[in-house]
Amino acid sequence: MIHIVGVVISLFLSILLFTKKGKSRADLVLAFWLFLISIHLLCYYLIASDKFLEYPYFLGLEIPMPLLHGPFLYLYATLLTGKKIGKLYCSFHFLPAVLAYIALSKFFLLATGEKIFIYENNGIGYLGLLKIVHFAILPSGIAYIIMSLYLIEGHRKNISNLVSHLEKINLNWLRNLMIGMSLIWLSILLGNDISTFTLVDLFILSIGYFGIKQVGIFTNNVITLPANHLEMGLLGVIEDESSITTKVKYQKSTMGYTLLSEIHLQVTQLMQQEKLFKDPELSLNELAERLNIHPNALSQVINTLEDKNFYDYVNGLRIEEFKLISMQPGNHKFTLLALAYEVGFNSKTSFNRNFKKKIGVSPTTYLKQQKISLQATI
Fold it and tell me: How confident is the model at residue 198 (pLDDT cuts 50, 70, 90)?
């Protein structure tokens, strides 16, 4: 029964994505992948329930399918992290599965009775080919999971230099799904078909769950990421108060300490006077625009003189502001979370994590140490 549920849900999610308005390339890849999973689950269900005798034309389709899941995962992660991928390079990843299907072409041309006979006799006549395919499946899955995790980690580091909020764009949900895929590949190594495909069914349920929770997957409420100026090329532009334009390169050796210090002073004064960090969605591009400098130059200043990425820099200012306003008696009527929102954090989790990272203790412990009593959360 759980396999039928898995087939229905994966097919339903696939249709949702195919019919979604304004769908992206990543949406299309996920849609095709979910459709593939639904066919794979259906093939397994027919074989496990001995119903392949009624639908023999499905026989053999499932054999190379595990070689397709890894490339689809990697391609999906690549598109979500904003990386460009060429058609030729993309096709290369699907080559092993294509070769496997070509090698099985003789089997697909057999009469129905011959196909059934081969399946009932554990693949007689094709044992060598089956061993080769099964031998390639495990390393393929592991390799693609590792490459996809590497992409996500790189994405996280990249956006830390671009935005002051990570919760909706850090792709942690995709990393969690990859952990689920790792369990599937582990089951292939240590378990059996029953445990493997049961995990696949649970994996599909997880995609549905995270897809509903995650903004922009099955809806059009996409969180847009600022243009990544750190990868646009090395040349940037700095404009001073006299509108003199100076081209600089994004390299620490090309900007003198005096110039770095001048820009840093401007950033510090602007943050102190206008408290731009209170904007929960403040980005590097927006701050650079206020200063009339190129984002590359601003990123270099923060990385060099603050020794932080943009994310940590802005959240550090928010924490200092929280410490300041929490000491004011007039603010003791507010809750801790209300003050956290006031200084620019957009979630309790983000506030607690960043506060403990910077101060070394939780916000509650800090307030107790300072003998500060805020309104209790209702």
Answer: confident
CA dihedral 7, 2, 58, 103 (to 10 degrees): 90
Q: How far is CA 279 from the centre of its chain?
A: 24
Q: What is the pLDDT of residue 189?
A: 64
Q: For the chain, what is the mean pLDDT?
A: 79
pLDDT value for 327: 92
Rounded-to-integer distance, Cα 163 and Cα 310, Å? 7
* Global pTM value: 0.66
Count CA within 13 A, CB hemisphere, residue 56: 15
b (16+ CB within 10 A) / e for 244-283: eeeebebeeeebeeebbeebbebbeeebeeeebbbebebb
Helix (H, G, I), strand (E, B) or coil at 256: coil
Backbone angles phi, psi at 123, to 5 degrees: 80, 25
How many Å apart are CA 154 and CA 55, to the nearest integer?
45
- How far apart are the C-alpha atoms of 349 and 268, rounded to whole Å? 27
Q: Which H helix or E strand runs over 367? A: helix 363-369
pLDDT at 195 over 80: no
For 18, how many CA atoms within 13 A lie in the half-sphere containing its CB?
A: 11
Does an H or E element contain 248, and which?
Answer: strand 245-249
CB 60 within 8 A of CB 118: no
Contacts of residue 352, defined as CB under 8 A and 6 or more positions apart, other chains included, come to 362, 363
Distance CA 62, CA 3 (A): 15
Q: Which tokens is 34 given? A: 């979910």
Q: Which residues pair with 111 in a beta bridge?
A: none
Rounded Cα distance between 263 and 291, Å, is: 8
Dihedral angle at the C-alpha atoms of 19, 43, 175, 215, nearest 10 degrees?
A: 20
Element containing residue 7 per DSSP (H, E): helix 2-18
pLDDT in tens, 109-141: 999 889 889 888 888 888 888 888 888 888 888
Computed on alpha carbons and rounded to an integer, the radius of gyration of the chain in Å comes to: 27
Give the residue-averaged pLDDT of 359-372. Answer: 92
